[in-house]
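#structure-requests
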Amino acid sequence: MQLTRRYHFSASHRLHSDQLSSTANLELYGKCNNPYGHGHNYVLKVTVEGEVDPGTGRVMEPGALDRFVRETVLGPIDHRDLNTDIPAFRSLVPTTENLAVVIASRLRAAWPSSCRRAQLKRIDIEETKRNSFHLTIS
């Protein structure tokens, strides 16, 4: 059984690789390479999977997942500049692909022992109406 919860957060970023020239960065990232950055209103979906608990009838208590995601991901990332405020992006270009990996890593590292019945299965992030990214966790 899978449970998916949906969350919203806002963050800014600049897509820029120090390994590329200014021209190459502009060609690769276009307007997203703006030196002043730009922001998005992201939609994050977190999916967990596991057996339904016979006592509760749930794979995981949704409120517990909400609290965990708020503390582990949303609190540290919401209304932040990903390039400067999130340590992982000091060495990674803050693309939404990398953002999904960073979020999954944060969730896996802090996964509460009380939630062992349900395992993290998938992260989905909608950056814009045209761009969404899906990371399946094995």
